[in-house]
Specification:
Pfam families: HTH_1 (PF00126), LysR_substrate (PF03466). Among the domains are: 62 residues, Arc Repressor Mutant, subunit A (Orthogonal Bundle); 125 residues, D-Maltodextrin-Binding Protein, domain 2 (3-Layer(aba) Sandwich). The chain starts with a helix and ends in a 19-residue tail after the last helix. The C terminus is likely disordered. The chain is elongated. It has 332 residues and is of the alpha/beta class. The strands form two sheets. Strands 3, 4, 5, 6, 7, 8, 9, 10 and 11 form a nine-stranded mixed β-sheet that branches. The chain contains 15 helices and eleven strands.
Amino acid sequence: MLDYKLLEALAAVIDQAGFERGARALGLTQSAVSQRIKLLEARLGQPVLVRTPRLGPTPLGRRLLNHVQQVRLLEHDLLDQIPALGESEQRLRIAINADSLATWWPKVTGIFCQERDLLLDMLVEDQEVALKRMRDGEVAGCICATPRPVQGARSHPLGSMRYRALASPDFVRRYLIPTDASSADHKTDSKTKNQKQSTSLEMPEHLSHEVLRRMPAIVFGRDDKLQHRLLSSMGFDEPFPHHLCPSSEGFVRLALSGMGYGMIPEQQARHLLESGELIDIAPNHALEVPLYWHHWRHGGNTLERLTDHLLRHCESLLLPMPEQDPPRPGTL
């Protein structure tokens, strides 16, 4: 028979990323939580946590976390059906990529959560990393770029997001426009230049490897491979200078400031393209990233309703899935 006090201690330590914070979340002392973890490991005869170099679950610990996650969801459903059992806070933990969170996700989930008094605990992860959170039992669902679900889960295609290589007009002048043309353009007064900047700049037909070697890019994080996919599509597979910016809003602001060029979702930058504040420097190399919703099969009614809601509403906010085969894990 499973002792759920011990399992909740394990879940709290992982959820809160530490014994001290986990103990605080449970209203216990750190020593008490540590004793529960030790007792759990003693009963199982093997460790459930890896303590160094970074705290995390062992393979057995992941299986236990998966179980706890699904029990919580089923418990919420039971409390909905039998209110006399007591009140329970409805909360789902979701892993989602920053670009979805900055664009279509709030529009789709806002009303759903309000109508059901549902709270979401959202972990921001790259499209390819989010599935690891599912595998580790840390989330009930995730937005991912690969269709293959982990064992015990389902996946559903939602649509795709188109990314374009965007930069500010000043950045384009510095790196892509011949010096004499750039100098002539700067003679225009700033107000007029701002209005004309997207049409007055003649972009080169191709970006040379020499330019790509020195032109700084903006990359969301070390797991972000969109920039590499862009450059590979141009036949460029060399190291390139880049800024790291793990913020969707900050990413766009850096591009607007002229610090670099980056792969930005078309729907996030549409108004900036129309105003000329950003320019597509590689219009023939847009990338479409497919998005899939993954969730546990036996996650309960709330998770099933959220899934149905996503499938009904994403069609109007995302592009159709690309016709080509979806990318394999690790190719984004």
